[in-house]
Design goal:
The chain is α+β, with helices and mostly antiparallel strands. Helix content is 29%, strand content 27%. Strands 1, 2, 3, 4, 5, 10, 11, 16 and 17 form a 9-stranded mixed beta sheet that branches. Strands 12-15-18-22-19 form a 5-stranded antiparallel beta sheet. The chain has a 4-stranded antiparallel beta sheet with strand order 6-9-7-8, sandwiched between helices. Helix 1 links the parallel strand 1 and strand 2. It starts with a strand and ends in a 19-residue tail after the last helix.
Amino acid sequence: MQSKNILILGSGAREHAFAWKLKQSPKVKNIFVAPGNAGTDSIAQNINISINNFDSVKEVVIKNNIDLVLVGPEEPIVNGIVDYFEVDEILKNIPIIAPNKQGAKLEGSKSFAKNFMLKYNIPTAKYHVVTEQNIDEGISFLSSFAPPYVLKADGLAAGKGVLIINSKDDAINSLRDILEGKFGSSGKKVVIEQFLQGIEMSCFILTDSTNYLLLPEAKDYKRIGEGDTGLNTGGMGAVSPVPFVDDKLIKKINDLIIHRTIYGLKAEKINYKGFVFIGLMINDGEPYVIEYNVRMGDPETEVVLPRINNDFFDLLEATWNGTLNEQKINISEKTFVTIITASKGYPEHYEKGKIISGLNKVSESIVFHSGTLLKDGNVITNGGRVLAVSSQGNNIQNAVRNSLNTLQNIHFDGIYYRKDIGFEFE
């Protein structure tokens, strides 16, 4: 069998985890990551290009005889990288794992996603879509139920376009602010939602447009402070499996949400070959969709992939070929926890360029790099979230302890991490 050359687009811990997993496949020869980080540099070849410059991506694909492209972050997906491949004579037959631009609207447009859920009877919070033209309708909708209120900028806003507000007056003022440009062009439309009480979890599927595989579930921790306090971040840690998830809940998620999502994609004739991340709120045993993402989550990927025993390349190839129905997912019963190290000041102002030490002392955990860079032979910080330290254990507490033990050996100036990931399951 001919060994394959893989191109992964992205620079975070998710992409490092993809490379780590694909490196284990005997069918994979060379892995390229664009632009990558210091972690991917140790197991793959980094290529410093802008992944939103599709002409540059094409050059890399041709030059390196790429056999499959795996897209990590949402921006190039929403910008239409799959559509670019589809119409190019050279690229159109090269497998690319991501949905096309229409499918990417599930993440790129909150109003599209909510209307999709309504059309296909997928449980979600009550909502109303507001523009400057119908702001009075939005204000009336806010008056129709009690706070808290959820306001979401329609487009991509780098994870900052969601507000949860406890007073109607504040919600009205924030609605005007968003429509007037608080989040730039992503706020030309605003989705107002009724707040859902409950406990959050993340569900992931891999689909070839017709069939799908349910991947391990996860729960991430967005708040910067212990006990889930403080500002929202891109995620400070994650656990998998999630203790409250049982067969009964999985059946409901499959029947009420996943089956209807796949049916809707087919009915809309959307070419969707890739991951669907479904953010769920579980309220009194009932699942509701908070959001869709059209890629794997980060830091969830860093606990989901280590639990998948399959050859990851086989799953991606079957996704492109439309043969996922011939694959059977093999999931480890081990628990995995990842703890994120962040730069001092994150998620607000933080400094870069701090030297990271102790990575050579790691033996019991997997350290996935997020915001790192190689400079003058040193690994240095290059982002707000810096490392994802993933460990396995017999339960969450054991896995957390293993990651914390590893973190005692890792240092950079201003290092911060939560010590209570999974705290509610103790």
